[in-house]
Amino acid sequence: MHPTLPRIVVSGLGAITPLGFSVAETWQGLLACRSAVGPLDLFPLDGLACAQAGQIHGLAPLAGSRAIAFAMAACREALGQAQSEITNCELRITNSPVALIAATNFGAMDHGEKALTENASPVADAARNLCPHAVTDLLAATLGLTGPRATLTLSCAAGAAALAHAASLIRHNRAERVLVVGYDALSRFAWSGLCALRTMTRDRVRPFDCHRSGTIFSEGAAALLLESDSACRARGGTPLAELLGWSTNNNGFHMAAPAPHGAGTAQAMRQALACADLLPEAVDHINAHGTATQANDLAEAQAIAAVFGPHTPRIPVTSIKSSLGHMLGAAGTIEAIASILSLREGVIPPTTNFETPDPDCRVNLVANQRQEARLRHVLSNSAGIGGGNAVVILGSA
Amino acid sequence: MDQPITITGLGILSPLGIGVEETVAALREGEPALKTCGVQSLPFSPLCGEVPAFRIEEWLAAPKTYIDRNSELLLAAVGMALRHAGLDCATRDPERIGILAGTAWSGLDTMSAFFADYLQKGPRLVKPLLFPHAYYNTAVSLAAIEWSLRGPHQSFASGRAAAAQALIAARDLLADDEADVLLAGGSEALSTTRFHLLSAQQALLPEGITSAHIFDACHAGTIPGEAGVVLVLERRDHAVARGAKPLAIIRGGGLGPTGAAGAADAIRAALQEAGIAPAELACVCASANGCPALDNAEAWALRETLAGAPVPVIAPAALCGDTGGVCGALHAALAVLLRAAGNLPPVAGLATPAVPGLAYVTTPATELRRGPILVLAMDLDGTSAALVLE
Description:
The complex is a heterodimer.
Chain A: E1 8-16, H1 23-31, E2 38-39, E3 52-53, H2 66-83, E4 98-104, H3 109-112, H4 124-128, H5 133-143, E5 149-152, H6 158-171, E6 177-184, H7 188-196, E7 220-228, H8 229-234, E8 241-250, H9 263-276, E9 285-287, H10 294-308, E10 316-318, H11 321-324, H12 331-345, E11 347-348, E12 364-365, E13 371-372, E14 377-383, E15 388-396
Chain B: E1 5-14, E2 17-18, H1 19-29, E3 35-36, E4 47-48, H2 69-85, E5 97-102, H3 108-121, H4 138-146, E6 153-156, H5 162-175, E7 181-188, H6 192-200, E8 227-235, H7 236-241, E9 248-256, H8 259-274, E10 283-285, H9 292-306, E11 312-314, H10 317-320, H11 327-341, E12 343-344, E13 359-360, E14 366-367, E15 373-379, E16 383-389
Parallel strand pairs in B: 5-6, 5-7, 10-11, 10-15, 11-13
Antiparallel strand pairs in B: 1-2, 1-8, 1-9, 3-4, 7-8, 9-16, 12-14, 15-16
Helix pairs in contact in B: 1-11, 2-4, 5-11, 8-9
């Protein structure tokens, strides 16, 4: 990295997932190989084949939406961790404004879909929730975040893309601190569509397994507070990790299929490495997108091989979607959090449900058992419908 | 910034017309391009700013099975912008060309059609074809696929500031040499569902009122509008090297939260980044839309930041209606074209400003003086963005 550019650090983490109502609970669940997937009972399935999900139980909707409740809970935990270094009082980092970037696939569609009903008079607040920026505004207003706000919707790459955008805002002095939250909730609208895409399995989620047959979607939120290193230290905060590199791109190929040989994913990883000023061999671990669909895992494995070449067998790869399911707009941020915890604790959570190696997916998978490892740099991949990719590289603080 | 970020191409479809020439002619005329729109579910025909008929096939390499209005507007704008910039993507490194776009509502009619099947036929009989078009990033991703734009890619859904945020983000990425060329802009479509939702929120102009009366003490509410607008951005050295003529330079950008204070933050940041004083501005392209809270907040922010400088203020929403998430890109494109038009369009329906003390343009044929133009995009739901173009 250029010496005059500000270093960007992560100083707060928050998560609410089907594995737990905090980062710590989620992390323990990942390390213990717990599965977040179970029967979906949020709404009638009326014969839908997709009946398993990573559903969150026991959290009341906020402003009519479970999605908003998830996002709010994750933001509060992240801000709470950042400020607990100084005081246990209000959720105020400092007097300087904190920007907010919220990333999502469907926003508060679990509430907004009520306004899509034909021949009915939509409730005004449900109509408002069809515009995902209304959620961002509500979060910022409630949490007292007075900096700029943005809403990013790069489908399942949105969370990582939001981290990339936040880093750019800090680098260009448009914000000193940015809270990034990825979130999504299951809804009738989203679930019927995701099922229609035929990417979900009735089996377990088996990333990179020869017999993988699809992903299972889940819900929740994951938040990270990013700061310039100087701003963090000036307030006496503790950096948890450094955001070293980032990138976004598009495969330029197809709405729902990866590019041949994972070309787009490979290019996104190369761009992130260039941004971090790192060579491929400096990467110690890859937290993969790893959706467990045949096409996506093959493309990602090919991309990893293309970028890391002879170093590929040395680099442990994991996909936490095997335990958590695919958290949609929160996937990129929860995987960034897992990457940070791997860096800090020297342990990589396992890819569960792995049985049969795929000769075409030659990655060094952390299969079924956690792996101890001293890590300096972790790369996390994300991709989404529409062909968007986003990559972040995190390093020890 | 070592190399200025230039605008070298415009793709514009708005109620004012299709393309640069029609838009410039409409700006010279300065008349609102509003009409009544028949919407079945409403008891009256509301005013709207509708994009005139255009042929999407003209801009696409091959016919598509399904594209909704929002995607059509963005795709046509991309095709037009590339042609205007003289840029053939096929001859360029696709990984060095990217696209960032914004929208507030995206493809609402697709969402509605998809969910109608759910309600009427059940979840097993929804149309798989429609679902990928019901994402907020559908239009920008379709554009990346259509032209193999494999560079930086972002999808903003930040309300009315979405496209302006895309422009500022693109400027920053080019400054970091993350790409050679970035397309930035957005789209917003009129749709039955949008009218239905705005009606539920009591955000439509009441029946019988023929002007939004933007900035006026009797502002009456918003008139929905639509547009697809894309700007081609590149560093000046890159533009010059390929023989392109820069149309304008983005001198500065600023972001802020909502309200008058937030908009003032964004304006100050943009002016500071541009390195200019308010008095140097040739005009302000405001984002006021007839909603009293938004009009007043923007006016107060301008009063605060212009500090008495008599800078002419125009409001394109008076011509086109409220174009939602694309308004920032539309205003930026209009700011570039105002120079060719030579005069400033008046704010129709403004007689008695609700917030006095600003040089609102109310008379036709007001001459545009030399100098940079301040472009605003403000949303009451949370964010403000400002750009300085020259």
